[in-house]
Design goal:
Elements lengths: L6 H24 L4 H18 L14 E4 L5 H10 L39 H14 L6 E6 L7 H11 L5 E7 L8 H4 L5 H7 L3 E6 L3 H9 L8 E6 L22 H19 L3
Parallel strand pairs: 1-2, 2-3, 3-5, 4-5
Helix pairs in contact: 1-2, 1-3, 1-9, 2-3, 2-8, 4-5
The chain binds thiamine diphosphate (TPP) and magnesium ion.
The site of thiamine diphosphate has 22 residues, from α2.
């Protein structure tokens, strides 16, 4: 068995673990946050910001930047930590999260450098992404638009208006993800609203659908590296684990917006630190 991993994958995995670590500290300090969905989405955010997307963090409005919309806006803590790591703003801003008048509110806002859309009311991000992708076509621009949705979010009807529009206009510059962690706010997605067969539904809406392990960095890199425009929008169903990376949070619905105690934080950080140490050791 080959235990070696290419350097770039190792580097990305390390970044994702560092983002998870910071995210938990931020939630602990604020005594609030959407923990489970932040952790499930961390690897997707990492691969986008440190591998796939084109942007200039010192020039957030650079016209040719790839666009990213966090439609599942409640997962803002890992998003803020990713943007800080990508140098859109100083890491010290993260310490203000949850305090009065902090620029970092409990859901994404356009006040924050690097954020394209105020989000948090589920079901709107894909529609705005469609608009951005359509604008790129009309302006003959080559930027791509990425949208990250939740699986519970798939119960919002507006998602399907956006889905139809994207395929009608052949928006092959639009790449959406569903963070398929199987849990909603209150329990399993399938007990709230049946979403399967998810792949076939999106295919029937005219999308090119890919499925990937959304917590496997090598698989995410491979999926995005092999992406090609095929005259249709792309949907990446990313199979993830809610609470990924903290043993006692994984697949536990109540960690959707759980805040760790002192002892729980220490345990979570020790698990993450053990992985960080392995990733920083020479192969
Ligand atoms: C329109 C709307 N309805 C309800 C909510 C409340 N809410 C916040 S998170 C959430 C669950 C979302 O589940 P999912 O999309 O699966 O997100 P994840 O599991 O990735 O955290 C709900 C219902 C909301 N933010 N917006
Ligand atoms: Mg979910």
């Amino acid at each position: 068995m080959n235990h070696q991993q290419p350097d770039s994958i190792r580097r990305l995995r390390l970044k994702a673990e560092e983002i998870r670590r910071r995210c938990l500290q931020v939630i602990f300090n604020a005594k609030a946050g959407h923990t489970g969905g932040s952790l499930s989405a961390t690897d997707i955010l990492t691969v986008l910001y440190f591998h796939a997307m084109r942007y200039r963090s010192d020039q957030p409005d650079w016209p040719d930047r790839d666009r990213f919309i966090l439609s599942k806006g409640h997962s803002v803590e890992s998003f803020y930590c990713t943007l800080a790591k990508a140098n859109f703003f100083p890491d010290s801003w993260l310490d203000t999260y949850g305090t009065f008048q902090s620029i970092l509110a409990g859901h994404p806002t356009r006040k924050v450098p690097g954020i394209e859309l105020n989000s948090g009311a589920l079901g709107h991000g894909l529609s705005v992404g469609v608009g951005m992708a359509l604008a790129a076509k009309m302006d003959a621009k080559s930027y791509r638009t990425f949208v990250l949705m939740g699986d519970g979010e798939q119960g919002e009807g507006s998602v399907y208006e956006a889905a139809m529009t994207a395929s009608h206009y052949h928006l092959d510059n639009l790449i959406a993800f569903i963070d398929r962690n199987g849990l909603q706010i209150s329990g399993p997605t399938e007990s709230v609203m049946t979403l399967e067969p998810m792949r076939q539904r999106w295919e029937s809406l005219g999308w090119d659908v890919k499925e990937v392990d959304g917590n496997d960095m090598a698989a995410l890199v491979d999926c995005l590296d092999n992406w090609q425009p095929v005259g249709k929008p792309t949907m990446i169903i990313a199979h993830t684990t809610k609470g990924k990376g903290v043993s006692y949070m994984e697949n536990v619905a109540s960690w959707h917006h759980g805040v760790p105690t002192n002892e729980q934080l220490a345990l979570a950080l020790s698990e993450i630190d053990a992985r960080i140490q392995t990733l920083t050791e020479k192969p």
